[in-house]
Amino acid sequence: MENNYQYDTIVENVINRLRDRAKIGFQKYGTNLDRNDLITEQWIEHAIEEALDFSLYLTKLKEQIKKSL
User: Fold this and answer.
1) Are the beta carbons of 37 and 29 closer than 8 angstroms?
2) Rounded CA gap, 45 and 4, in Å?
3) Model confidence pLDDT, tens digit, residues 8-63
4) Could you tell me the pTM of the whole model?
5) Helical H runs in 1-69?
6) How far, CA to CA in Å, does 26 sit from each of 33, 34, 43?
7) DSSP class of 38
């Protein structure tokens, strides 16, 4: 890391949120992403499902913004 690194609250917030999500995931599923019981196709399916959820959330927010204009 460079000597002139400036503390970035946004980066730290994201790091903390990732750690929190990892803890929640472990509590919920009893494992973490180091697991090796899924094949590549299953990992891809999980990612697709997450992306679909993300698109739903963005669409909802877009509709809310349009209604408020």
Assistant:
1) no
2) 41
3) 999 999 999 999 999 999 999 999 999 999 999 999 999 999 999 999 999 999 99
4) 0.73
5) 9-29, 40-68
6) 9, 11, 17
7) S
